[in-house]
Amino acid sequence: MKVLSLVLLLQIIYEGHAFYRLGTVGVGTTSGTIYLIDANTLFLKGFSANEAVVFRGGSGGNQVTATTNSALSNVNMMLDGDDDWLNVSPIEVRTASGDQLITSFDVPGNIQIPCSAEYLGKFSRNGASTYHSLAGDVFYDALNRRLFVAGLYLDGNAPAAYMWLDTNAIPTGSGVRAGYNGRYARVDDVNNQDTNVTLPIGGVHTGYRSLSVWCEAVSQSFGHISIPQSSDSFECSTTYGFVMLGNSPPTHGVSAKVYVLGPNTIGLKNLYFDGSAPATWYWAGSTSNVHDGFIVASEKGSLAALGTRNNANIVLTLPTDFDVCNTNFLGLYCVQASTSFGQVYFSTEYGCTNCPPICKTVTQTTAPSFQCQDLSSTDQLEYRYDPTNSMVTFRFHTCNLEANQYFAFGLSASSSGVAMAPNGDVVVCQYSTTGVVDCSDYDLTIRSQCALSGGSYNGACPDTVLTGGANNYINTQVESINALTTFTTTRAVTTTDSHDRDFTPGTPQYIIWARGGTFSSPTSERWVLRHATSERISVSSPIQIDYDSTSTCPQPLECPMSTPAPATPWEIPPLCINSMNSEIQASIGNTGGSQGYKAITGKDGWGIAWYLNDILIPEVYVLRGTTVTFHVNGGNDPADSARYHPLYITNSNEGGISALALAELTITETVLAGLGYNEVSETVSDLSVGPYCEWTETQGNGDNFNTFEEYKNTLVYSCGSSVTSGSFEWTPDSNTSDLVYYQCATHRLLGWKINVVDDLEECHTLLNSSGHSLLPFFSLLVVVLDEAHNIENISRDSASTQITQSQLDLARNEFESAPHKMPNAGEDVKSALKHLSAMSLSLMSWLCGQDQFLEQESFENYSHSWLGLDAVKEFESFGLTHNIMQLQNKHIECLFEVLFQKKDEDEDKIFDENNEETSRFKILSNSTVTMLEWLFVVLSNILRPDNKYTEDYIVSITKKPISKHGYVEKNKGWISTTKAPSWERTLNFCCLNPAVAFEALSTTHSIILTSGTLTPMTSFVSELNCEFTQKFSANHIIKPEQVWIGMLSTGPQEVRIEATYRGLEQFSTQDEIGHVIESVCESVPDGVLCFLPSYSVMDKLRERWKSIGVVKRLCELKHVVWEPRGSGKADAFKEDMNSYFESITKGRGSLLIGVCRGKISEGIDFADAQARAVVCIGIPFPNFKDHQVQQKRGYNDRRRRDGCTSLLSGSQWYEVEAFRALNQALGRCIRHKNDWGAILLVDARFSNQSYYNSLSKWAREKAQSFPRFSVAHESLTRFIASRTEKRQI
């Protein structure tokens, strides 16, 4: 058996076409593409030169030359040499006069070309223009009956167009489809592609008179060329079948029909191979021994082992020096197992005779071979250094490159690693939709799109627009076959261009590479659009090239035939702009990966884009006639072009107008707002400059997120300077186009659409359907929360809830009975009710099954609690998970949608005979509806997959008796007895982090917290997880002489008062507090408010004062009202307050005794005589033994131990809560600028500096400390007398 080495395998690879493109000239005035058609003939395509040109190969007696007769201008011509070109590589192109080298081309030694070929001409329609821009130069190899097309072009807009061989000189549709480059599919968008035309497998070889591109849908030729007839005598039987050695059935299912299409071209029709065998190749040999053979490259030119072939139609080309006359067999062979899976024999006895000669030689050349570097799975670089002319040649192979996209490669800006800027030196290759090929020198001066800055260009710019720069890349050519595009270009090792970096043969160099989109530049060329966010860029994986290495790629690059489906764009909510909502804030941000800018607009972005009202490129709808104000934060330093982005309104869908003077672009672009133009200096002025504010990524680009909201939550917003935003106004009128754009004046493609409309119905519809109806609204809101001193507690409460066993039982019964009340309900509603009923039963069963774990807290009170993650495990134990919650949430939405509709239909029936609302929807009770709403809000937080809020919750069960006494019948008589109590179990979800609920306001523009008693303010930032950059504590509106504030450590009996739990247990302290209040009531007219720390203290003092006569004496001085305890005594409280105010009006005066955090300490206005004094006894710390207080203190301490040092400790939070309640009570007696009153802080602990500092600013400034009560009383008496005298005057 003959096994070929890797070197031999590489020697038999078939490269190129049956004619060979030497390359493209683009130097000075000489341009065009040069082909080697046969051994003696050059073909010049689209060639121009201002003088005659000489083509020369070899030297001395082995020299071959050909010369054009004169100057040429975009001509096609055949140019015969005086000998064989194949052995005189390289072929030089020189001027005829002066013999100056223009460029040179190598001729590879492993190409196959015909001995002679005939130029048939161009595609035409009987002299008329072709359809769909069909173009190409057609050649005919009569000896081998092959057709070739140089530079095939078709715009791809036609349906069902195919390469077609017709039996008539002018196509009529009588013929067969032909393949191009082995493909028998339709001809789509083909751009400057050199093409082999192949016969259909199984077709005959004679009788075709024309070649065309034929549209089967309309039976129309887009253009054709006639084929000369030939009398050559090559013959071969047309059909064979794979056979096995011996009589065994085919191994691995191998089968095919084999056709000889030409002397060295073989077609396999309906080839099947299961692909499961190891190391299997196409295999051919010239002897009868099937084990003695060589590998034949695959239909794609690859030497990789074969995979599955399922009824494939393919064309194979035998390697150099082999044809069907000297090759005996072709088959599929497993080298590892030394087994043939099937073969067919080509010997003269099977009919193959008179094989024509094929001109093929191996060129002996000194040119070095290419080195190869895989850049990615779909990008490959080949390079070589030629020391004879100090030139470096590059070949870039890339997959699925579209027209107006670029591929770039070059030297890193750093010699020690990978860096793009400043001054990375790259070559950017691209081809346009019209087939123009270009490889241009670029200097990456900064990481920015190329733009004018201070009168000169800066950014990723072509050297040709930079001072002293030039394009030093020559011999550029491109080939596009299927999805693979190959660029070839050459540059000298060293240039005189200051924008070029030298190549250093002998020393490895770091490279950078990228690919992406281009834009139409001011010079009408297309420039690089993207920078830092290009589709691929080798920054994370440094790559070096080494000119002295012998590196090769594992195999030729093969592109996937199908391109990935385009990314689905995010749903971005529109902005609906009218006179009530006419402000737009604009800043810069990342484009959001494949689902962001490109997917939304269909255009390649630059890596950054506009964010309007904190939303990535929203489509804007503006009500015609509305004046819109844009506040722009895109940078204000023109010298820093990468961070200078003036916003303007235009009719251009790309923008970037500042690259030229405005006057030069008025023909194609109209500026509607945002820019001004100075006619004298012919310069553009940017009206919308402000600080550079940017949304930047912290967790990768948008490809990692399903929605923009998820992506937005990972962005960080930052602003450069404190200067104000640049602003301008724009009012679209009746003359304004329906569609315009907001763009950047200095860079292309940062913005999106503005729809000018006569009503906003479409915008509101889009907004609602997107599910973001509140997002744009919130982003414009300035939220002002008045009386915000309780915002932390309110936020915690709004993310907490309680569910009782009775509620769950009621809900389950209602879910089960609801179908009977809704006989016409759909299956979706019935299914929802069934699932919710099952969930209620599961939750109730679990709740009742936890009794064994409950611990006794007090007499007949039991409880048990779980921290967040432990609670999640408990819920998962009976099937309550995040996914189940999502499903149940859909059931609730389905149910509520029907119930709301039902409520509307039965609105007049919603009340019972007592005129009381019996049910919110008559189907589910208010209790059930409310429970469902709150339960799913809380569980959605706890069961989030990322556990973001899980540890912010404590879940507990409490068990308390609801009745335990009754009567039973015994021995025919009734006796009182104690029966087993009826228990109520409650499931408590306690949120310990107010930021869980407060985060809902994070998308607003601004949040302002106001209150007369925000002090102390230390907790707001840490508790609400919101940075309040501005803090302001105003002076009180009243004058100093209008208020008296005294801090008392003793009472009239000089007994020290500390209103702590232990201090208040002492009768002496209780009595002394009573004496203080008596003294105040004697000295202060009208109304007096007294605030105690808690209801338990109030009950304790009331009982003691009754026993020692204090209550009696107080009642003699004033009408005394005690604040009722509990929330169910609204009528009694109202009566007490009326009696309090009435007694003051009648001149007797009143004393109202209540508690901090009670009904009277917050929210009630006690103006003027209604409260001339406020007496605060002690410091109202929350109940230390309260379960939630203990949990909150523990939560804060745990968070601090886990590293959240910005959070207050448990004790610090506890103190803040006390003084915020105290400060709220202090302000009850000063209600307007002319009011006056006295405040007494009765507790020796106020002498503690930290406690004093926790008082409101206005109280601290006016407070006096009195170590003896007599001094304080004397001062208070003088203050009251002075205010009373002024009132009488």
Structural description of this entry:
- With 1289 residues, this protein is α+β, with helices and mostly antiparallel strands.
- It contains 22 helices and 69 strands.
- Strands 29, 30, 31, 34, 37, 38, 39 and 40 form an 8-stranded antiparallel β-sheet that branches.
- Residues 1-17, 244-248, 359-367, 531-540, 660-667, 902-921 and 964-980 have low confidence and may be disordered.
Write the layout of secondary structure elements.
Elements lengths: L5 H6 L8 E8 L2 E9 L2 E9 L3 E5 L6 E4 L4 E9 L10 E5 L5 E5 L12 E5 L12 E7 L4 E9 L6 E6 L8 E3 L1 E2 L9 E9 L11 E6 L4 E7 L13 E2 L13 E8 L2 E9 L6 E6 L8 E3 L12 E9 L11 E6 L4 E7 L25 E6 L2 E8 L4 E9 L5 E7 L12 E8 L5 E8 L6 E3 L2 E3 L1 E3 L10 E9 L2 E9 L16 E12 L5 E3 L7 E2 L5 E3 L29 E3 L5 E8 L6 H5 L6 E5 L2 E2 L3 E4 L4 E8 L11 E4 L20 E3 L1 E4 L4 E4 L3 E7 L11 H5 L3 E4 L6 E5 L8 E6 L7 E6 L3 H9 L5 H6 L1 E4 L5 H8 L2 E4 H17 L5 H22 L6 E4 L2 E7 H10 L4 H24 L20 H17 L10 E18 L2 E19 L3 H4 L7 E4 L8 H7 L18 E6 L18 H17 L3 E6 L2 H14 L1 H8 ...
Parallel strand pairs: 41-45, 42-46, 42-51, 45-55, 56-62, 63-68, 63-69, 64-66, 64-67, 65-66, 67-68
Antiparallel strand pairs: 1-2, 2-3, 3-6, 4-5, 4-7, 7-8, 9-10, 10-11, 11-15, 12-13, 12-16, 14-15, 16-17, 18-19, 19-20, 20-23, 21-22, 21-24, 24-25, 26-27, 27-28, 28-36, 29-30, 29-37, 30-31, 31-34, 32-33, 35-36, 37-38, 37-39, 37-40, 42-43, 43-44, 46-51, 46-53, 47-48, 47-54, 49-50, 51-52, 54-55, ...
Helix pairs in contact: 7-8, 8-10, 10-11, 14-15, 14-16, 18-19
